[in-house]
Amino acid sequence: MRRLTTRTLTTTLAAGAAALAWAGPASAGVFLGDPVVGPSGDVERLSDMDMARDGTGALAFIGDEGGAPRAFVSRFVNGAFIGAERVDAGLSAAVEGSSVAATNGGRVVAVFSAGGTVYAAVKPDGAKPWSGPVAIGNGALPSVAMSLTGTAYASFTNNGDVNVARLDRKTNAWTPVSGAFDVDQPRDAGTGTKRSKVAISADGVGIVVWGEDGADGRTHVYARKVFGTTPSTRPQDLTATDVDGRPAGSADMPDVDAEDDSSFAWVVFRQAIADVNGATRLRTVARRQRGTEFDPPVAVDSFGVPADEDTYAPRIDLNGRGEGIATLSGATTNQPIAALLQNDLFGKGQRYGTSGSVTSAATAAVADNSDALLAWVQSPGTDAPSVRLRPFDDFVPQAETTLSRPELGPVDPTRGFEAVADRAGSGIVAWVQQSPTQPGARSIVAGYYDVPPRAFNAYTTQKFRSLSRPKLSWGDAVDLWGTVTYRVFIDGQQVTEVPGKTSWTPVNPIPDGQHRWQVQAVDRRGQITSSRVRLLRVDATPPELTVKLSGARKAGKPIKVSVRAADVQNPTGSGLARVRIQWGDGASLTTKAFRGTFTHRYPRGTFTLRVSATDKAGGATVVTKQLRIART
Questions:
Q1: Which fold does the domain 544-629 belong to in CATH?
Q2: What single DSSP character describes residue 504?
Q3: Among 39-53, 88-102, 379-393, where is mean pLDDT lowest?
Q4: Is 387 in contact with 404 (CB distance < 8 Å)?
Q5: Percentages of the chain per state (helix, strand, coil), in multiples of 5
Q6: Which of the four pLDDT bands, split at 50, 70 and 90, describes residue 275?
Q7: Helix or strand or coil: residue 106?
Q8: N or C: fewer beta carbons within 10 Å in the chain?
Q9: Domain 1-26+453-540 adopts which CATH fold?
Q10: Phi/psi of residue 448, each to 5°?
């Protein structure tokens, strides 16, 4: 960003030179997708993305290096993704899948599988380097989640069993959770569409969900909590026998997210449900964890009875209070569907966008302030697939817009599609686009929904001050995505630009008089939030003061002191406040009579007469005179 230099202030900054406008926090800006990585034939897929509440985060992807797939992470720091960092350094086996989690302070954990082993790498904070990869168990299909305090759980599948490991926030050491998580270990669990997912509450309690073959011939979805390194002794079978009064069969594709309070979480999954005509549809249902039990299932797709199409890829995202969005797609129309969760109740799923000709994808992210993002891939008619975005302001839907750039090529939803948000409502959507000019080359692309700097106020007093270079101060216009630059305006002219600071002292004097000043907070993407216009009153010129003496300078005789005081800036100045006469013998007089003659009788001796005139800005002029009083 171009930096502006301080300009010389002259008398052209007269009061009322230009009226300054006030603009509070504007609506969040939509910024079209830019490549994070690529275009390159080495880009394989976007694996995962996560964002902490403080606006730091990370994107995990798989890319070829040295002829084999490797695990990479690009961290999101100060509002931008930084260069890709390889996290499987020193390993020779090809990476098959990866997952990433982030929490406040730049702490990131990446978990990935390679050659039948699951590894993890940890970046303890924004300053410390990544650890080398550490094996945490045998298996594949990893999923990881991290709490506000930095504790993390990873789940993965090994030979048809679901296993879990825990990362300690203090030691950064991984400990396997005892035994397999699945209920009937001889039966297949955690593979294919039965893969596991993990979530964690603010207080560090984990919850793991997975699919598992049942003795009744159905595939079941289970959930199990984990405390420290001890799994719950009561895994819950979430597979309903009926939903909305209709018989239900096998279930798979579970996803889970937890509230801050570990007593509450939501699980969404796909289940075969019969309709009134006897046809079976793969519908999406949700169940709420309440303590150690789960509430009855609720359908969150848009289908009535009979259902009109199967669904796939259900996902859910919650904020810490339990508000959320469940997303899925119709298998026939490829149309995204989303259901809003408020007050612990799901609304009926609503269709967004249009029917598409290719496999769709839908995802959502919900912020702590109840703002949210819904994103999906669509390809109506013969159009190339593109990314669409619909923000929600306090769960009220806003205008839909296209987030992807067509010149980067068609979007490929089969190679990953993710959305995340911070606590203030800013969010990122990431996807993969095929290069239109380089066959086989792909880019991982990110588009942004960026909330401008928070509203703030200017603080410096509006009263007259006697300083010609008064310190101007203002509040912090918080922006989680990088340092805010402040532009200071006086009488409509920009006089300085300071990055990150909330005060400024002029280098050059400001002329006496009344001025108007304002501060603009500018984020890294050029979005502006302005303070209200505030008065700046300067009266750095002290009052004029003349003092004349008359009378015999003898003890007991009257001495007359004639005082004339004036504010030379009147009427644009602050005005006189008082005249004070200190006679020098311990007696004094304070008056608001700025012209007059005052009498005093002295004893014999030598005295210092001190007369001061002070204006309302605090500026003062002092006249002193020596008096030698003789004997009568």
A1: Immunoglobulin-like (2.60.40)
A2: E
A3: 379-393
A4: yes
A5: 0, 55, 45
A6: confident
A7: helix
A8: C
A9: Immunoglobulin-like (2.60.40)
A10: -130, 140
